[in-house]
Design brief:
Elements: E1 45-49, H1 54-65, E2 69-74, H2 78-89, E3 95-99, H3 105-119, E4 124-127, H4 143-164, E5 173-177, H5 190-210, E6 216-222, H6 229-233, H7 236-240, H8 255-265, E7 276-279
Parallel strand pairs: 1-2, 1-4, 2-3, 4-5, 5-6, 6-7
Helix pairs in contact: 1-2, 1-8, 3-4, 4-5
């Protein structure tokens, strides 16, 4: 039987950034009751930024059920991060929490050294954390907002990859979260969409650069996904109708992206590099 997923309209709701999972109506599905692992990532060691909630939580849970230990890097959402940690540990896997701001190069290097110290190495780096804010006019975007978006969304990927790659054995993988906005930019998310276009090119170029080291680099490009980022960064009317523009007429749930991240991390996907997997509810990508 096909699973029934919630469709808009959603109740009125507004949160302060970065938002909390349990305050959302409805609460997102991360695969808690649906994802079944099969040992595809047995004894792998994964670093996931933005792993406290949303897509990051779904990926952390799926990786744990596939046999991986995870480091969950997040900004300041301690409550959400501890919930993700509990989900991972319930699968008998290690879950290390590291709070802090990835716009700082020093903190990115701290994430990597913590993974090496606590997990013994890094086999998978998932660059998933992101910042976005909505503006109707160019003049509303401050210099500081523009710079912050680039620091969090693209500069941090460079810092993390640069720190991690020397410690990643052949067969390792980097997975970057891009967006449908890299090909179909939403003008009210100008800074965010611009960084997502940069991530697409960063992924393609880095895949070529690291091929001789045996490190694969790929991206996942989600469409509208129901995460705390939505009620905390979009206007209330946009939240109410979120996802209606897709052919499926609904947003995706974080759980619906997990299999893409598992497939790209799976050692059996050894010839997949420089690819972008679109998870967009039927909207064309590229």
């Amino acid at each position: 039987m096909t699973q029934e997923f919630v469709k808009p309209p959603f109740p009125d709701q507004k949160q302060e950034p970065p938002g909390l999972t349990d305050a959302m109506i409805p609460v997102p599905d991360h695969g808690e009751t649906s994802y079944r692992g099969s040992g595809r990532l047995a004894n792998k060691r994964a670093v996931i930024t933005g792993g406290d909630s949303g897509i990051g939580r779904a990926v952390a849970l799926a990786y744990a059920r596939e046999g991986a230990d995870v480091l969950i890097a997040y900004l300041s959402e301690d409550e959400d991060a501890k919930t993700t940690q509990t989900l991972v540990e319930a699968e008998g896997r290690r879950a290390i929490l590291v709070a802090g701001d990835i716009q700082e190069p020093r903190h990115c290097r701290r994430i990597v050294t913590t993974a090496i110290d606590k997990l013994g190495g890094i086999d998978i780096l998932v660059n998933n954390a992101a910042h976005q804010a909505s503006f109707k006019e160019l003049q509303e975007i401050s210099d500081e907002e523009w710079e912050l978006t680039f620091k969090v969304n693209i500069h941090a990927m460079f810092y993390l990859a640069k720190a991690a790659v020397p410690h990643m054995p052949p067969g390792s993988v980097i997975i970057n979260t891009a967006s449908i906005n890299s090909d179909h930019p939403n003008p009210t998310l100008l800074a965010y969409a611009t960084t997502k276009g940069a991530i697409h090119n960063f992924t393609a170029g880095l895949a070529q650069m690291l091929a001789d080291k045996g490190v694969r680099v790929n991206a996942v490009a989600p469409g509208p996904i129901w995460t705390p980022l939505i009620p905390s960064t979009l206007p209330e009317e946009a939240v109410k109708t979120f996802g209606h523009q897709t052919p499926m007429q609904r947003p995706g749930q974080p759980a619906e992206l997990a299999t893409a991240y598992v497939m790209l991390a799976d050692p059996l996907s050894s010839y997949v590099s420089g690819a972008t997997i679109a998870v967009t509810g039927g909207r064309p990508f590229l």
